[in-house]
Each structure stands twice: as structure tokens, then as C-alpha cells.
């Protein structure tokens, strides 16, 4: 539960940007092209994706706790950069730093919970972890929207982010303990779900297995990438779309918060549900629900329609997000699970950069609604890939209860 609390502050550190930065790009820095305005998401996604990979390697080599603390220390200058940025380049630089910090802190909270709970409650643990993080994102997005409406886009919203960093760092230094030894204990009795998931693998072997060779791991990796591709779109373009339609900053903040709030809270249910019914079809269903929700945003108009779409998008993402992480944990051997999680998160968070770049180019060429509809189609196609290619990976399938068909 301590790690759940820590990850809520990790999410809050990210959430300080969700409402405010798209509006800063438009109203303060007067960026004309959507592609230029979304450069901060590209920078964040690339930095976080690369750091996720190294977080897995470093946490296996040096332990989880030092990597967590390092991530918080790196986050300290981010609010200052956002508050005092004289040009858009400073905002982009701040997001490179934030991406590095998020890659270290969020990755290690995932690994530490997997270490602690063992295989039977892996989905539940991922549900708690991701729920805390994205409720933190939602709460910060809502709070910063109201702060911005009453006191301006700067500095007020980012002072809240500074407080999140201070509390998260303090909890991690004073109270969080190392968990790597739990993974070593689990490794001694681990039964691989698939025959090619043995323990003695090099970094290159783990990368190719997670990314391409294993049907389940690679299916999960592409679904994670597409999921964050559509989140990059939502983060960067939704506030601009809503503001251009005449919605107030408060209403834009509500819509920016509802999506991650439903996403966050829903994971308290879907994570545990995946332990009971399996991972695959929850992932497929979630991707298709997201696709429908994105289509509704693209063709819809008005606050009420967009609110319903935001709820649906959050629900679909909740079905997918903790389930993908749990599926990685099901297949990956405990000896290289942290590395596999890091590689999956590399692909997943690379989706931020791809989504921001793709949606920005499409929005510049054809408008925001068309960009949203293209991403909706990609999301549906990703769900179809999982349906066709992914095997049953979950602990329930591998270790059926007496009388369970397996």
C-alpha cells in the first residue's frame, strides 16, 4: 500500500501537465502547427520509453529502491522549468527530464509490486498500481485546470507538481524497502508458462523474445504501444479540440480528468478480474471499446457527448492497462521479468511519441477529427492482432484449479 501511495504521486507529477501544457502551447507560445505543439509529448515519450528499458536492467543489477529514489531526484527541476520557461524549447526540455523520471519511478513501482505479490495476485497488484497512478494523473489534471482558471496558466498549476515530487521523494527515502530478493525466491520455484521462457537469457534474447519472437509477449507489446499512441493523441489534441469548440478551461479540465479518472478507478476491478477470467479477451475487448470511444470523440460535438466518450475511453483503457502488465509477468521468468517489463514499457511509452507525431501530422493536414478517426481505426486493428496472435498467458491458464478445464 505504501508503493500504491508512492505511485499516486508519480501520476500526479505527470498529471500537472495534462490540462495546462496544450493550452500554454496555444495561448502563451502561439504555436501554429499541431505537430510543433505536440513536440513535448514526443520528447516525453522517447525519454520515458528509453528509460523504461534501462530501469529494468538497473533494477536487476542494483536493486529496485535506488532506481526509484534516483527517479524522484531527477524530477526536482521539472516544475521550475515549466514555470520559468521563456520559450517552447524549455518546455520540451522539461518533458525530457520528466520522461526520464517517470521511466525510473513508475517502472520500479510496477516491478516492486510484482516482486511482493507473487503470480496468483499479479493482476490485482497491477490494478492497484495503475489505478493509483492514473487517479493521480486525473486528480492533478482536474486540480490544475481549476487553478489555471482562477490564477492563470503559470505558476500555480506547477507548484502542485512540486509538492507531489517532495512528498513522493520523502516517502521513497524514508519508508520504501528493497524487494528484489522476493523475485529471487520466486525464481527458485517458478514454472514457466511457455517452453521458451527459461531463466538464463541475455539482454538481447530478452529483447527479441519480448518484442518479436514470443507470440504473447510481442502481442502485448504492440497493444501497449497502440494504447499509448491513442493516449498521446488524447493528451495533446483533446484539450485543443474542446477549447476550440468554445468550452471553458474548467470544462476542458473536467474532460481531461474524467478519462484518466475512469481509467484509474476501473483498474481496481479489471486487474483482479484478469486474475479470474484470463488476460487475452479482456485486452481485446478493451482495445475495441477504446476504438469506439475515439470514434465518438471524432464525430461528436458538445460537452455531454465528449463526456460520455471520455468515460468510455477510460473504461476501455482500464480493461487493457493492468492486464497487459500482468500478461508480461505471466510469461517472463522472474530472473528476467524486470528486463521484460522494461522492454514492454519501452514499446508502450514509445506510443506517446508516435501518437503525438502521427496525430499532429494528420491534424495539420486534415484536421483534429480526422486524426482521431485514424487512430480509432489503428486501435481496433491492434485488438484484432491480439485476438489472432496472442496465446492464453495467465496464471489461471497455466495452473488451473482442480476441476478447471485449463
TrEMBL record:
Signal peptide: none
Entries under CDD domains matching the protein: MFS_MdtG_SLC18_like
Membrane topology, as annotated: Multi-pass membrane protein
A Pfam family hit: MFS_1
Domain of life: Bacteria
Bilayer-spanning residue ranges: 31-55, 67-84, 90-110, 131-152, 158-176, 232-249, 255-274, 281-300, 306-325, 346-362, 368-388
One annotated Gene Ontology cellular component of this protein: plasma membrane
Major facilitator superfamily (MFS) profile domain ranges (all copies): 1-394
Primary localisation category: membrane
GO MF annotation, one: transmembrane transporter activity
InterPro entries found in the cross-reference section: MFS, MFS_dom, MFS_trans_sf, MFS_Transporters, Sugar_transporter_CS
Keywords: Cell membrane, Membrane, Transmembrane, Transmembrane helix, Transport
Subcellular location: Cell membrane
Name this polypeptide is given: MFS transporter
Organism of provenance: Cryobacterium algoritolerans
Source species taxonomy: Bacteria, Bacillati, Actinomycetota, Actinomycetes, Micrococcales
